[in-house]
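We now fix the convention by which a protein and its fold are recorded. Think of the row as the fold of the chain written in a discrete alphabet. Here is one such record, which you should read through line by line.
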Amino acid sequence: MLLVLPFLIALVAVTILHPRVVHIARLKNIVDNPNARKLQKEPVPILGGVVVYFGIILSVGCAVGHTADYASLLTVITAMTLMLYTGTTDDLLDLRPLPRFILQILAVVLLLVSGHYVLDNLHGLFGCYELTGWISVPLTLFACVGIINALNLIDGVDGLSSGYCIMASIVFGFVFLLGGSDPAMCLLAAGTIGSLVPFFLHNVFGRKSKMFIGDGGTLLMGVLMSVFVMQTIQSDGVTQLFAHGGYSSVAFTLAVLAIPVFDTLRVMLGRMCKRHSPFHPDKTHLHHLFIELGFSHIVTTIIILSLNTLILLCWALSGALGASDEVQTLTVVCLGLLFTWGIYGYFKRLERQAPETFARIIERNRRRNPKRDGIFLKLRHWIDRI
């Protein structure tokens, strides 16, 4: 019941609200217009984050108090609200990177000071256990702001950011449930999944009901993923669960977020090497590469989610085989680099050195993309009518 109730409340709430917000956004011209950097061909409403936020808050509000005291969620909700307003303002007014960055830091500081969420223990990784404040605070700021931006920057094709956060919330929620000491986090994960599922369906299959989650949605999702990461590290129940099985909780959190984190590092370092701002928009993300290779949006989303799932499975296998925390972490890092830096670098080099082969790959991928007919059109018609 702990998971079912908030999931259903969020699912029903977003299902009802989504088409109405789409109508308002179109009526008021609150849309994302196509340009040379963006992949859509027509204006699309961008208030998806508001709908997802509403579903999560309603599910938490209705479920609070049934099994435990959820007062600790107040700080998380406040940080989510700050990021929602920051991102939505950016969607509407196109904020400069500096104020966005400052507000992201402020949200993490709020989690640190008021909610006591902090990365303060590496649980023996490389011989490190509890961290002093002068190490844990900057580490928390760096990691959480990085996660927030990674989730924001992965939002480039239909279903990718929402599908990714559904996957991550399922994994984190399952771990919190097994840990047995984090009912508030279980509730939050279930509400997040319930809110994102109907949005994902509209985003991927809808036409008239299609809406982007926007920066408001990706930034609040970034805060949520940051909280899940920190709670995984801090939770006694989760720590004991991983220690009993011989798994590294630090490697686990990195595995869950591997593709966005390593792809964002690659993109930002590449921009800085070109003497551009790390926040300078371009089309060098992994999802841009797969689109360039001729894959459709949904196939690109499936590929990236599959790559990240494979990293998680390899991490779990390494732990099951008795690998040390260090080996588990290095396994995740190596696979993360291979699936982001390696894949991107290989195909870009192929494009330069063997353009004819590169063109044949594109043509083959385009022919193999799923056809948008039959079941797809029936599903689109059904989704648009909800």
